[in-house]
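lol ok so funny story. i was supposed to be doing the assay writeup but got distracted and ended up predicting the structure for this chain instead. priorities right. anyway since i did it might as well share w the group, maybe its usefull for someone
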Amino acid sequence: MELARSEITRLRALITECLPFELPFEASTHWLYDWLEERALNVNKKRIKVLLKSRKDILLLALIGGREKGNKLPIFASIEEPRRAAIQASEVSASWQAPARFVVRRDQLRSRNLDLLSLGSQIAVAYIYANFKDSLLYYSSRAHSSLRHPSRVNQHGRMLGSGAATGPNEQNRYVETSSRKLNTYNSFFAYEKYAFIGQFYDSPRWHALEARWTYLRRLDVSNCFASIYTHSFAWSTGTDLHSKSHLGKVSDFHRLDLGRAFDSVMQRSNWGETHGICVGPEASRVFAEIIFQKMDLEIEDRVAAAGIDRKSYEFLRYVDDYFVYSSDKSTLEAVSRILESVLASHGFALNSTKTVDYVTPFTTAISLKKANLKAFLKRSLPRKGQLPRFDAREVGVQLKSLLLDAENDAAAAGSALSLVEREVKRFAKKRARKCSNLQSAQELSRYTWGYIQGMLHQYLSHPSATSAIKVVRTLRYYWNITDNFTELSSSERRHLHYEASERLHFAISKAISRLAAASGTEIEICHFLSLASACNLDLASNEELATAVLAKLETELQLLRTPKSNQAFLFLMLSSLKYFLDNKRVSPAARSAFLDFALRLSERILSRDFIPAASVRGQASQEYFVLAVLECKFLTSDERFKLLAQPWLLEFIEQEIALPTSKETKFAKRFLRRCLSEAENENFNLNAFEWGVSDFDRILYEKEPQFIY
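and the output, tada:
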């Protein structure tokens, strides 16, 4: 996105550093930053002064927290009678907060736990970036072994108002590096040297290493983020003794050094735990990078102390993957042992099943198949001349061949999909402009669909949450491609658009049907439902799909035993309400079934005993559920009130807002009713969950899988 300089710009880390990119599209907006930009009066190192203009503003600020102890929020605010309030950096950083954990698939057999930070934790993280950006750069740039680390603060106002999202050659690049500038603000830092591990494999440096060394050993740290001891961050930026002597002292947050401040924020954003950090936000990756840089320096010192010549080996690291090079096997073994010993001394262990030795050339099976796929796509997707005679079946076979004998199915599938997505878009855009009649346009559309169908089959055979995003992005591009047929009449373009919609109808229905029968697929289903909503597709099997989704929701609700359980089904429920309840796509009976499920979920997560209120201030799934349901335009005001008028929220309102002292519950319900009435006015919308579709393409553009954990 493009940012205008304002009071809140210093907290722009809220946009790129706090949320996992695997979140559903509707949950990936910049709503919190946008709200602060509209409401902030002043922002400094200590606090954010805001102007509250509605009861929803008051409720949101109550959920965020950050007020000085003993201060309650006013019961009323409006545009005509705004109220002033402040979010104290020290308070949002001192409170124990609970993230919402959700599970996504890495492949058919493995999954990944990710965390959605609470609202207060997101602001605390943004303050870390704002107050300590120079220190973050220094401590993450000390070791030469790191292949990806922050190198400078990214520009945020570039190309403002230009009307161009990216330059002509940058459409598929989403992370800025020191050697490559983008036209939009996509990350707080620019990175040195490789945005993705694949860039390293394709780089001249990889080939130079291959020419210099005989042996390569690749090592992987097991459960990296779960193994991090948060207090080790202060050791990485100072001394362990200094860290332990100041535990818990965060009253003057703006005066803390980076080590204690970031340690405190990461600990308190994760239930107050000191072992393990939240997975998903880019901030967690920066936190881990600084710890690993300190260990890299220790490894170098230990190797030198062992008498090993620095010229006889080289080791590099990409996040938690190590690459050890040497031309002597004994040196390779010695360096590997020291590396493992240093990691173990800090609580990390290597995953022995992922330790792989290579003898030059180091090119992997995936690299070879990637090269073969590139060659095939170059032949089969020419920019000019006659269309080749490859049918859909042959395309599918070629794409599938990338996966045969590959060392990692998920990595191979993801690499293949990225290549096909890029080449299909370039091919279709270039040739569509040259189609002078409906017949040639239909032929091009059918030919292009063969590749997209192949992508869908490959994704369903080797699934992952990141691959789902790539497929959805390509399907959306195909649905919009008719705009590129500039030589056709409007009626001919409408005909092509109808055919494209029918093909998407088939693809989305097939994907959701398959995904509903598998486990860990909630977020992937959300992606396809979002696409169906954005394209306004009425799937012929709506009732059948709704039944399958409801069955999946019921199963997952039964598994919600603790607030640390998988809560991905919360997003699936919201996405289902958006799609199935819009335009009355399902029967009244199915609608009632969705509402009944939503009520039972509400009674569970908004109950008094869902979280230990005495120690944890709030939980992200509670916050998100409240803000999303508050503005759901597919439910009546009474239906939304029934979902939200639960014990936890009513008691929370009584605790945080200055209600009349008598009959507080009555006034809490009245306050909630009036918040709901404000939700009818779109001028007051927070858009924590995007119930509309107007921003889908912008969110989709920004939803590039950047950071793989």
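The longest helix spans residues 490-516. Residues 249 and 260 are 9 Å apart (CA to CA).
back to the writeup now i swear
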